Amino acid sequence: IQYEKEDILYQGLNRRILNALRSNFSDIIDKYRFVNDSLAIQTPVYKIWVMWWDGEQKMTNIGKICLEAIKRNFKKETVTLITSENYNQYVSIPKHILDLFNSKKITIVNFSDVLRVFLIRTQGGLWLDSTIFTVKEIPTDIFDYSFYTIRGRIKFFVHNGKWNMFLIASKIKI
User: Fold this and answer.
1) Which of 35, 52, 62, 134 is 20 to 30 Å from 166 by CA-CA measure?
2) How many helices (H) and strands (E) does the chain have?
3) What residues does 78 pair with on adjacent strands?
4) Distances, alpha carbon 44 to alpha carbons 39, 77, 92, 155, 169, in Å
5) 125 pLDDT band (50/70/90 cuts)?
6) Per-residue pLDDT band at 32 (split at 50, 70, 90)
């Protein structure tokens, strides 16, 4: 019953957000609505990206255990830990986003959402949140898709359960 009440509340919020997105970004939406997926023909990028902003030395025990499990269960290529010290070696974040983050107007959670999208778009590969614990080999077919994520069970917000940010993959846009 609580879920149904929350769902009703979020339906109204979703409607307002979708209407705002459509009115403010209809030109972008229309431009890309029926574009062929040129990424489908690109070669897969077998990389996994994980982030712990303060570095591996300051990871919690659960973070360390999860990172080791990811490394152990990914046989194809590399697992890279993104930190405050190395992120700019892999991705260029727009200055206005960095300014928002440095002035604490957006949180590390918001910043990592931006970082992961820029990263997989420009470098390709698979982003896994640092607290994802893998128990078996990570399947490589994930890397064959131009875009990959898993559906969520919670159908709140604009995504309506169609994607999750904790596991997201893409090929490189050329």
Assistant:
1) 35
2) 4, 5
3) 47
4) 9, 12, 21, 30, 10
5) very high
6) low
